[in-house]
Task: inverse folding
């Protein structure tokens, strides 16, 4: 066999998101891109803010000697300090640049965290539905993902989490706003989770880390705010990126931040820094580090995302679909009209509308819509959702 057996297994179970993306390219080549309505992939379509272009030009014009050389493994001091200053305001606790490591996106940040705190055989609990790559990131470090049910409104089910915790549990992984539901976990839920993790950590005799994956933190609607996780639990690590809030998905720039109140912080930070090096990410892109140093607290205009969300929500609920109204991110996760979400996704595909089956997020019977697209794509897909709503829900329509 030319490749490792494990890679053959992973390739065969490749992400539904990527499968639908590739199918969209195939259909576009046949029917023309303007006739294919791809709502399957979370690729931001809002341009970066003007401040980004200004910061990029300033950083690119920097010709100081050594500006393109190696840097500390944790990243540029000025970038880490700028992030820490922002986090101090956002999290409501004093954060130092020494508590920040610049990474190659949020995916790099999560891998750095898992390599640092998890031994082979350790487990990470996550609430369903969840981003499919989590399992692969954990597999990189011979760790395991343990999915648990969420509440009907997609809030965390603390009873399910409590029942899943065992001596192998090392991480509780949360993603808020959530991909694929758009759910923001409220502060009271996070505080109750923190109390649960404190109690369970004492019971099993080891720290359970709360890892918060936050690339959509600044993509929120209706005046919502994502609560600060550092205030909810001391042993917390944040993994995030600028892919969504600045529309820089292709630039692969993010960071890990550790709660300065975490027990053992003096060993956590050297571990994160070393992991950043030995995993081969050294370093986060230098130019982007210099750019984001100037852009803390800046984000894209979410008005287009909110308009698309509102159009979809009004149409889907009017047509009979059961759907949670997203509070953030740019996804919607309706219940499929039929139990077989893959069959329903195929039915939409026959109408040249691409969505991602909920099975790809560990939750069969649902499907994900990514509404980070031009409004014309959403508007063109609405009649098809109405048509299938009438077919399956007995005539309800918007």
Result:
């Amino acid at each position: 066999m030319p490749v490792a057996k494990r890679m053959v297994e992973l390739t065969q179970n490749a992400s539904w998101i990527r499968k639908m993306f590739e199918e969209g390219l195939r259909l576009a080549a046949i029917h023309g891109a303007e006739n294919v309505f791809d709502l399957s992939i979370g690729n931001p379509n809002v341009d970066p803010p003007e401040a980004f272009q200004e910061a990029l030009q300033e950083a690119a014009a920097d010709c100081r000697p050594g500006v393109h050389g190696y840097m500390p493994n944790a990243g540029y001091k000025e970038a880490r300090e700028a992030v820490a200053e922002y986090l101090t305001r956002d999290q409501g606790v004093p954060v130092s640049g020494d508590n920040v490591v610049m990474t190659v996106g949020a995916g790099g940040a999560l891998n750095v965290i898992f390599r640092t705190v998890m031994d082979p055989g350790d487990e990470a609990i996550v609430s369903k539905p969840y981003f499919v790559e989590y399992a692969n990131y954990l597999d990189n470090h011979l760790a395991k993902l343990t999915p648990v049910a969420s509440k009907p409104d997609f809030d965390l089910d603390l009873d399910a989490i409590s029942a899943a915790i065992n001596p192998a549990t090392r991480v509780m992984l949360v993603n808020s706003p959530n991909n694929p539901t758009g759910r923001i976990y409220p502060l009271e839920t996070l505080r109750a989770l923190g109390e649960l993790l404190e109690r369970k950590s004492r019971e099993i005799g080891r720290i359970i880390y709360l890892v918060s994956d936050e690339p959509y933190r600044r993509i929120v609607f209706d005046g919502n705010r994502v609560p600060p996780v550092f205030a909810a639990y001391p042993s917390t690590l944040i993994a995030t990126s600028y892919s969504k809030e600045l529309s820089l998905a292709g630039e692969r720039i993010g960071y890990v931040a550790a709660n300065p109140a975490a027990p053992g912080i003096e060993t956590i930070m050297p571990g994160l820094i070393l992991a950043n090096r030995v995993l081969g990410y050294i370093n986060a892109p230098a130019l982007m580090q210099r750019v984001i140093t100037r852009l803390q607290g800046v984000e894209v205009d979410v008005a287009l995302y909110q308009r698309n969300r509102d159009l979809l929500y009004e149409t889907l609920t009017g047509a009979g679909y059961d759907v949670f109204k997203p509070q953030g991110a740019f996804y919607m996760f309706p219940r499929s009209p039929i139990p077989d979400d893959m069959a329903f996704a195929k039915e939409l595909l026959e109408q040249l509308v691409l969505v991602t089956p909920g099975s790809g997020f560990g939750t069969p019977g649902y499907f994900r819509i990514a509404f980070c697209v031009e409004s014309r794509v959403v508007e063109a897909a609405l009649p098809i959702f109405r048509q299938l709503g009438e077919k399956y829900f007995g005539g309800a329509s918007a």
About this structure: The chain has a mean pLDDT of 94. The radius of gyration is 21 Å. The chain has two domains: 5-48+300-393, 50-293. The chain has 13 helices and twelve strands.
